[in-house]
UniProtKB/TrEMBL annotation:
Signal peptide: none
Protein name from the UniProt record: DUF4442 domain-containing protein
CDD domains xrefs: PaaI_thioesterase
InterPro entries: DUF4442 (IPR027961), HotDog_dom_sf (IPR029069)
Lineage summary: Bacteria, Bacillati, Actinomycetota, Actinomycetes, Kitasatosporales
Database matches in Pfam families: DUF4442
């Protein structure tokens, strides 16, 4: 992004209220990966003192949205990115701040080729949620689509 255009993190914070509510921090957002952090905030803890499952879901979904915007933001004039479905697995107890790292599950060129052919491509975004010691506390897969504009 150029200096005059807002960053992906700024765009998501401006347009997605939950990003602001949870104070998500954008560490990296490229077409290869997006990394967001959820600070440790007692207001968003669960009954065992870690981040609430809903906050971790929002963190992971937001990381997936950041990579989708980084990869396909230049296509917004012809298609709208939409999350279609998501599945999350909570693996270990999370405590403290947690970080979500998202990666695209298909090559950008393949997805754009489907869009160019008049199709509505679907593609997975995989997200790993880790705690400060590096252990994976959750894994999420979000299926996204690029819905062509009418």
């Amino acid at each position: 992004m150029s200096e005059t255009l807002p960053s992906i993190g700024e765009m998501l914070a401006a347009t997605v209220p939950m990003v602001r509510t949870l104070n998500l921090e954008f560490l990296d957002a490229t077409a290869e990966r997006a990394v967001l952090r959820l600070p440790d905030q007692p207001d968003f803890h669960n009954h065992v003192g870690g981040p609430h499952a809903g906050a971790m879901f929002t963190l992971a979904e937001s990381a997936s949205g950041a990579i989708v915007l980084a990869a396909f933001g230049d296509q917004l004039s012809r298609a709208v990115p939409l999350a279609v479905r998501a599945e999350i697995g909570y693996k270990k107890l999370a405590k403290g701040q947690v970080t979500a790292t998202a990666t695209l599950g298909r090559p950008v060129a393949d997805i754009l080729a489907e869009l160019d052919a008049g199709q509505r491509p679907e593609f997975p975004v995989k997200v790993a949620i880790t705690r400060e010691d590096g252990d994976v506390t959750g894994e999420m897969t979000i299926i996204w689509t690029l819905r062509p504009n009418s």
